[in-house]
Amino acid sequence: MKLKASIYHVFWLLLGGVFVFALVSSAVAVWLTSRPFLVQAQRDAADVYVEREATEIAQRIEPVLSLSEYIASEPNLVSFVIGNSLTADQTLDRLDDLVLPAGLRDVLFYDFLGEDIASYDVPREQARIDADTTRLIRDMARDLALRSMSATKPVSDWISAPAGEENAPGHLLISVPVMSRGLPEGAVVAVTDLVLGMGGGGEDTGTPFRILRTDTAAARIADHTAALPVADLSVVLRPDLSLVSRVGQELVSTTMLAVAVALFLPFAAFGWAGRHTILKPHADLEASRNKLSEQQKELGELAAIARKAEEGILITDLDERIIWSNPAFSRMTGYRPEELVGKRPGALLQGDDTDPLEVDQIRMALGSLEPVRVELLNYSKLGFPYWARISIAPLFDEDNKPYGFMSISSDVSERKSQEARLREAREAIEHQALHDELTGLANRRCFNAEFERRARAVSAGETSVVRIDLDHFKNVNDTMGHEAGDHVLCEVARILREEVSSADLPVRIGGDEFIVLLGQGVDLEKACSIAESIRARIVLPILYEGKQIQTGASFGIATSGCGLIETPELVRAADTALYAAKSAGRNQVAVYDEKLHYAAIETRDTAELIRVGLDKGEFVPFYQPQFDANSRRIVGVEVLARWKQPERGILAPSAFLEVADQLSLLTRLDRMVTQKALADVKALEDEGMPVPKVAFNVTADRIADPELVQLIAGQNFRETRVSFEILESVFLDDRPEYLDFALDLIHDQGLQIEIDDFGSGHASMISLMQVNPHVLKIDQRLVLGAPDSEVCRDMVRSIIDISRSLGIAVTAEGVETEAHADLMMDMGCSTLQGYHFAQPLSFEDLRTFMAEHRPEPVTGQGATEGVQPAG
């Protein structure tokens, strides 16, 4: 027992000695190892604190510096410092409107000599300063103003707080030069109160913060400095190294206490080791049993959830052989659980239409033990296909070792079916949007997209366009009905499909217009061959309901290989060639060549000149006199449009009317000429030389314009009659109803109607009686041929006989010789017109001509006084 007690005391003495030795050793080790660290930590802390203090001060003085620079650039201030004292109040008032930075005390203004010219005291509560400090601030401000003007940049300085005053502010002065035309004219000095150490850290590092000039010796030898954003100033902090000893002692004491507590616990635990050697294995065993029970419970709950889940769940081993499946998987596939165990899912469910790329994606993911999600076409036990969305993930045990895979799959066949229907509907809509409903050919939208794509392509190669327009297609609709016309269009579309290759794009633009965008690399020769083949088939009779329909087509071809145009201009060039084919007689192929190219350029230039000419009023009326066949005196004039083009001279209508019509400017041009002619005729009437009759050539659209009738009615001619010359081709039997209404309005207003170029073979006698004109003007081709052609003379006699029977006067135009004049007079024409008597005259020439050839006395009433048609 004594031995046992001795061992007990030795054990505890030894344990106590070791305990004390460990404490002392720990204290020495902590002191030796912590001192360098503490010194370095103090230095690091000082660097952090000085940077933090500099940042805090910078954030407070940045607004002051910005405000100073803004004030220095204020135009009113610049004007003020260079001598305009009237703007001082404006500058100071402007400061009242600004949001001034915190701490700003004064803003002082100096001229270029450093004289104080104004000051602004910030209207807020501020720390009071004594007179000496105020004087010091003023002296330093003047010095800074001179320095900043000399350096032409902002400068600054610092006045420390009075010693012994706690939390007393120092004063930071920032001077910004006021520049004018690159020269300093004065300076703005901002005085700001700053309390150092507000960012903390001074008490942890020893001495308080100071602000010093960077170029001073004290700043250069300081251990810890940080520059400020204003010139020449830095924040300085010099740490107190005595703090290291105090902190080290505190650290050693604390460490010894901590080590004592730490060592006491192991030694106490050592005394009770026996108890742990018995109880710990038993406790571990009991904990394992509890954990196993909890895991079994969790697995049971997961299995119950899996059996009730709507998604099919499958567990396989690492060889992808099925270990377990839930009822939902059996319902989806038709396989019973016992039929699935040991089988591979791919061998059971995949078929010929299963996407092999998706299968490869699954294999790659399983091989790398990565999760994967796919949508796969599978097949049930009965062979029915279904779409499944499958998510597969590897399974890991507690040691993070893989032991199998789990697959969760859902039947998405209905969604896939809906997507397929939506896709088909979208494709059908896109097809309808890009194809002609009647013929099934691509439409204009499809053509534009493809054409723009080729135009943008850098290496598209030679591109060719064939423009097609059916000839006289309107006759098919009018004579056989629109169903027959649709049949013809479909037949033409079939011909286009058969004649072009798969690389070509046949298009129906609209109506009876087609276009073929030939494949890349098709040259002009091949394009002409294709066009001729198409034309040869289109001219063949087309059978419809037992009747043959004969039609033709005109073709215009343009290719980028001609070197005349770029690809984006091909369609317009093909249109030009098509127009040339129609003008040349239709049912032929025309190519956009150099001649058409320069003609197109000429037309384009003419179009631009027409627009300019209309703006400048260059279109004027000329007048060709008309003479009584018997007395040979003037009985009227016909108004003819002429263009006084500054560079090209006087141009006849053939040089500009067609282009103006294409530009839809014909009505504007006609209005200009008509207004000028009416003004000229009114002037002649006012001068005592009234024109018996003035005749205007008008189109069907122009004659239906009520503005024209109102314009003429507003002239109030006293002795001049007004008539409209309308081409015979206008008065076909199927003329529109609006034209009949316009003619009735003209008759009601007392205006006359003359049929121009009568005898060209357009109008029937019935339509002539319905129009009820005042005058028929015989086509000049009949008049010119009458002296030498019995046929022409017979036709002229027939026209005159018709006119007499209807009570209509007859005018012969194109009278070139005296023989023409005598013949027409003898045959019964009442009025003669032509170069034999006078060429078209300008207004000045007409005035002279009228003075020399007095007109036939006017019989009847003026234009607005109810002149009635003859007969």
In short:
The protein has 871 residues and is of the alpha+beta class.
What does this structure look like?
The protein is an alpha+beta fold and 871 residues long. Helices cover 49% and strands 21% of the residues. The chain contains 29 helices and 29 strands. It has an eight-stranded mixed β-barrel with strand order 21-22-24-25-26-27-28-29, surrounded by six helices. The chain has a five-stranded antiparallel β-sheet with strand order 2-1-5-4-3, sandwiched between helices. Strands 10-9-13-12-11 form a five-stranded antiparallel β-sheet, with helices on both faces. A hairpin with a 5-residue loop joins β9 (312-316) and β10 (322-325). α15 (473-480) crosses α16 (482-499). The radius of gyration is 54 Å and the shape is flat. The model is unreliable at 1-5, 200-207 and 860-871 (pLDDT under 50).
Radius of gyration: 54 Å
Instruction: Give the beta-strand count.
Output: 29
Number of contiguous helices = 29
Percent of residues in helices: 40-55%
In the sheet with the most strands, the strands line up as 21-22-24-25-26-27-28-29
**Low-pLDDT runs:** 1-5, 200-207, 860-871
Structural class: alpha+beta
Mean pLDDT rating? 82
Shape: flat
Instruction: Characterize the main sheet.
Output: 8 strands, mixed, barrel
Give the distance, in angstroms, between the N- and C-terminal Cα atoms.
167 Å
Strand content: 15-25%
